[in-house]
């Protein structure tokens, strides 16, 4: 079993949900997070604010890359489904620009379905 | 092999920690608001017990070789005073098998 953590753009959530359902992964957990990547941020987007509050912008720059709101999606799947899931997430989210997101694959020891008490892969399938 | 370092820190320290990470050369961080309690079973002020204290959780994924440096950086920035105190937080390290970048569609080395 693997846990897949995908950090994606806010506005790609619906497309990703659709893609996952089509690929046969209905179950996932999502939460709102903020984060930054390797630091390629286009400060052009805040130029409007710059005219009104230059000191705020200066502080933003001082603190390094801006924190962008994004969604963190967590899915637990069987080993053989990992590549299929990664494909689906990437197809739905790729715009080709920096900031599209990251996908992490982590091993998990065990999983339990609370309703039936099933263990292991049976609990995530 | 990449490694995921999750740290739970004080909300008032999160800014400092993120600045320290940036200065140490680790710009990529994900931050989320969390609530929780630790070994001290929360915080007791007079008659009232707070057992869900607000914290910030930071998630960093780095190469295995950088693990010690990142943990040191977070420890140094998140500690209150020189000795530290209860409630300063925890750091958890877990292994990551693969990381993928969505924009390029490639698996990171």
Summarize the structure.
With 125 residues, chain A is of the alpha+beta class. In chain A, 34% of the residues lie in helices and 26% in strands.
Please supply descriptive tags for the structure shown above.
heterodimer, A: alpha+beta, four-stranded antiparallel beta sheet, 5 helices, elongated, B: 109 residues, alpha+beta, Alpha-Beta Plaits, two-stranded antiparallel sheet, 20% helix
Please describe what this structure looks like.
- The complex is a heterodimer of chains A (125) and B (109).
- Chain A has 125 residues and is α+β, with helices and mostly antiparallel strands.
- Chain A has a single domain, classed as 2-Layer Sandwich (Alpha-Beta Plaits).
- Chain A is 34% helix and 26% strand.
- The longest helix of chain A has 12 residues.
- The mean pLDDT of chain A is 85.
- In chain B, the strands form 3 sheets. Chain B has a 4-stranded antiparallel β-sheet, with helices on one face.
- By secondary structure, chain B is α+β, with helices and mostly antiparallel strands.
- Chain B has one domain: Alpha-Beta Plaits (2-Layer Sandwich), CATH 3.30.70.120.
- In chain B, strand 3 and strand 4 form a beta hairpin.
- Chain B is elongated and about 55 Å long.
- Helices cover 20% and strands 42% of the residues of chain B.
- The interface between A and B is medium-sized, with 37 and 26 residues.
What is the topological layout?
The complex is a heterodimer of chains A (125) and B (109).
Chain A: E1 2-9, H1 13-23, E2 29-36, H2 47-52, H3 54-62, E3 68-77, H4 82-93, E4 101-107, H5 121-124
Chain B: E1 2-9, H1 14-23, E2 29-36, E3 43-45, E4 48-50, E5 53-63, H2 67-78, E6 89-95, E7 98-101, E8 106-107
Antiparallel strand pairs in B: 1-5, 1-6, 2-5, 3-4, 7-8
**What is the correct CATH architecture of chain A?**
2-Layer Sandwich
- Give, in spatial order, the strands making up the sheet with the most strands of chain B: 2-5-1-6
Order of helical and strand elements of chain A: EHEHHEHEH
The level of helicity of chain A is 25-40%
Number of DSSP helical runs of chain B? 2
How does the overall form of chain B come out from the CA principal axes? elongated
Helicity of chain B, as a percent range:
10-25%
| Strand runs of chain A, count | 4
Under CATH at level 1, the class of chain A stands as: Alpha Beta
* CATH hierarchy: architecture of chain B: 2-Layer Sandwich
Stretches of chain A where pLDDT falls below 50 for ≥5 residues?
none
Distance between the termini of chain A: 10 Å
| Tally of DSSP helical segments of chain A | 5
C-alpha Rg of chain B (nearest Å): 16 Å
Largest pleated sheet of chain B: 4 strands, antiparallel
The CATH class of chain B turns out to be Alpha Beta
Q: What is the structural class of chain B? A: alpha+beta
